[in-house]
Amino acid sequence: MEARIAKLEAGVEYLQREVADVKADVRELRGELREFRGEVRADFNNLRSNLHGEIKAVGGEMQAGLVTARSETQAVRDLTLRLFLVTWGGLIAAILGLAGMMGRGFGWL
To answer: Is the overall model pTM greater than 0.70, yes or no?
Structure first.
């Protein structure tokens, strides 16, 4: 009976050592996990700030492009109006010239 108890005590001592080793490993893993979590948070915050800066830069570029597009659109409108007026002026001049030639031809003038 004594031998069986000694055997059980040896087994319990072995289990206690194993449990202590597992606890030490868990503590070590917790520390590593905390360190990893800190690194991930730092990387995430860095990525967020970089992305925020890039978004602001793209927004500024888009704003500048929009201003340029508006000015170019206004220039095209001005040119179109000028060409329209010149075309209508030419048509009116041609019609008046033809009317004058017809008036002279038919002896109206």
So the answer is: no
One digit per residue, pLDDT tens: the chain, 109 residues?
A: 788 888 888 888 888 988 999 999 999 999 999 999 999 999 999 999 999 999 999 999 999 999 999 999 999 999 999 999 999 999 999 999 999 999 999 998 8
- For residues 29-67, one letter each, b for 16 or more C-beta atoms within 10 angstroms of the residue's C-beta and e for the rest, the string is eeeeeeeeeeeeeeeeeeeeeeeeeeeeeeeeeeeeeee
Spell out the residues 6+ positions from residue 34 whose beta carbon is closer than 8 angstroms to its own. Answer: none
Residue 46 is encoded by which pair of tokens? 């860095």
